[in-house]
Amino acid sequence: MRRWPLVALAVVLAVVLAAGAVVLVRAGSDRPTGTARTLPGASGTPSAAADGPPRPGADGAGDEYFPLLGNGGYDVRHYTLRVRYDPSTDVLTGRASIDATAIHALSQFNLDFSNLKITALRAGGADKPADATWRLDGGHELVVTPAAPLPSGQQFRIEVEYEGKPDGEAFHHTQDGAVVAGEPASGADWYPANEHPSDKATYDFEITVPDGLTAIANGVPRGADPAVAGWRTWRWAATTPMASYLSTMAIGRFRIFEGTLDGRPVYSAVDERLPAGDVPDRAIQRTAEVTAFLATRFGPYPFEAAGGIITGERLGFALETQTRPVYTSAYFTGTEAAATSIVAHEMAHQWFGDSVSVARWRDIWLNEGFATYAQWLWEEHDGGRSAQAAFDNYYNAPVNAEFWRPRPGDPGGKQLFSASVYVRGAMTVHALRMTIGDDTFFKLLPEWTSTRAGGTGAIADFTALAERLSGKDLDALFQAWLYSEDKPPHPAR
After folding, report:
1. Is the pLDDT at 37 greater than 50, yes or no?
2. pTM beyond 0.90
3. 357-482 has CATH 3.40.50.720 classification
């Protein structure tokens, strides 16, 4: 993940705000269990080509932007993470149990993992995994050789015990604890993972922290064990599969706000260091309201819980960690309307990015363009400027405005979170709406989120669906708006 210093972030926001709308620019920053992954070298449904002698799984998921993120040869079904973290010493002790299925016969396989000390590692049959040999290549590739090869189609378990002081870019140390958030990778900073959105899994979390602190993760709260010898264990369950970079852990002292969304728990937390009753408290408590509105545009909310975490740390970004986005308090220092717009952005990602994840990271427009456009829709619904007015204000910006470049349909790994992906990306969404009309447009969005729910999608998949539903040839529109370096022609002229 690449993080912008807040000064640089302010410069970017100043550029886009000059066009007259609030936009979140993050820089650097339920698929059925066991279903196929589609990238070259990644896991997938076993086929005739998967038969044959055991061989190593690929050391990446085949993503051209980040070749070593993710791994091939297996598909993770479930993570059970038991971690203990002591903020006073910064030592994290963990035990990860990973249930997976071999996609082809495996002589060895890789996991993504940061440089924490491994004290034990076992791999093999789900009932009795055996001691395995392992090595860390390049500090982030955990290469595992099981005692015996794993046959194609076998369900197996990996158990890793580890400890150390986390030093990854996604593990953020706070005054009283820690928060984990980062994109395109973050899980590997605190547990071994298959770190690509093409491999989603369910999760159980058991997080032990000093008594007096709260530990928050994704999904549904399962309660906390009574404190024993000064420690308390908090339990969470993410029952809908998620990508590892969308997992989170937040430890500290928080004000907790609980509610419901169509019977599902809404659990939100605000750093106690922030003033009570101020914009952060008010904005985060509108999460259910914002999400309910977005469901009228995108289809039913896709997950078992909702909420958010506002940390007092100056992260320089917010992230759509599944069911419970992580926000930096810097986004909540203005008006409640502006703050709630950021909530709309991250909750829109629950559909665009979390439930329907990118097939490859070059498809990032499907995440950020639609989440930014959701801000425009929410602002109009909340009594602010219309989406059309936001589009017009941006379109009237000069051709040298920062948000026109790079191409949002293929920005490159180093510019994955550039302003164009957000702003020109949202403008592309509105240009599509203007071209195919509201009736088709608002049929297209829930069709996309429902047919792809829990899986992945590529830009080509979305454009094909848009053409099918509209009956129009949209090649010229998408070429101009997503793949040209030039300012596109106005769709109504």
Report:
1. no
2. yes
3. no
